[in-house]
Design goal:
alpha/beta; 11 helices; globular; Lambda Exonuclease, Chain A; two-stranded parallel ribbon; binds iron/sulfur cluster
């Protein structure tokens, strides 16, 4: 990243870039820090440095995706070596795109040990067993949720169905174990995705869940349900309307916090930003 004057101005960007869809992660990024949203989704700045923690989560995600794709194709569940291979493929791909920043007391050997433990736990847990027929893995769905606002684009980790229910599962890795309150508090994304996915099986009851594996010394894999609540979906739509209105009016400002800034890939342009 070079000097301050090379950052795109908001006016320049407004004229040159306009997405015709929104994603939940984009909305969530704006809520976390409007300036981070600007750098990532409007200015399109490259993420030059990404924390090993984020890359680890993405690589575990890829291994789980590989597992369910094999099951969906009617193949046996992959063994540990195959899952590790999927993990390292994703890790090395990301490593070619960005500089990976390791945490304190962390190195590639510790990452390898952690990946091994997490994937063993995943394989041995009920998270590896789908609820019914697999309808989609990393399934991309798109549709209008709010008139006047671009379509919502959703990439759903796993969609399964049995006779009665359509289950939408989102996979997470977490520094610590979750609890039921944390899952409910994090449920907006799943609730919105359910609005798109329910069209796949309109007569079935919707079931929403997080599949969470902790990155603890002894990883724990757990399912956490989220209550399907239409009132909360309406509230979330209203939040998105407000956020979109702020984006359209180019309301971008830094919202520094220890949680957000520590792993932000735009620390350098943020320091240079002058409004
Ligand atoms: S460093 Fe912090 S304040 Fe700056 S863009 Fe990133 S998250 Fe926002």
């Amino acid at each position: 990243m070079t000097g301050l004057l090379e950052l795109p101005t908001q006016q320049t960007v407004k004229q040159s870039k306009k997405r015709d869809y929104i994603s939940y992660s984009a909305i969530s990024t704006y809520q976390q820090c409007p300036l981070k949203y600007y750098f990532k989704y409007i200015a399109g700045l490259p993420e030059e440095v990404v924390s090993s923690n984020l890359i680890l989560g993405g690589a575990i995600h890829s291994a789980a995706e590989f597992h369910f794709n094999q099951l969906m194709m009617g193949n046996p569940a992959p063994d540990q070596d195959m899952l590790l291979s999927a993990f390292w493929n994703e890790w090395h791909d990301r490593g070619e795109e960005v500089e990976i920043r390791f945490g304190k007391n962390e190195d590639i050997n510790k990452i390898a040990e952690m990946a091994d433990r997490i994937l063993v736990e995943f394989q041995q847990s009920e998270l590896a067993i789908p609820h019914g027929q697999i309808l989609g893995v990393e399934e991309q769905l798109r549709g209008e949720l709010i008139p006047g606002i671009p379509d919502l684009l959703a990439r759903i980790d796993l969609i399964t169905a049995n006779d009665d229910e359509l289950t939408i599962t989102d996979f997470k890795t977490s520094r610590s174990r979750w609890n039921g309150v944390q899952a409910e508090d994090s449920g907006e994304q799943l609730l919105l995705y359910s609005e798109l996915a329910k069209q796949l099986a309109p007569s079935k009851k919707i079931r929403l869940e997080f599949a969470v594996i902790s990155k603890t010394a002894t990883p724990v894999a757990e399912r956490w349900p989220v209550t399907y609540d239409p009132t909360r979906i309406t509230r979330t739509r209203q939040v998105i309307e407000r956020v979109w209105s702020a984006i359209e009016s180019q309301t971008f400002y830094p919202a520094p916090s220890p949680m957000s800034c520590g792993c932000c890939p735009f620390r350098d342009p943020c320091r240079k930003w002058r409004g």
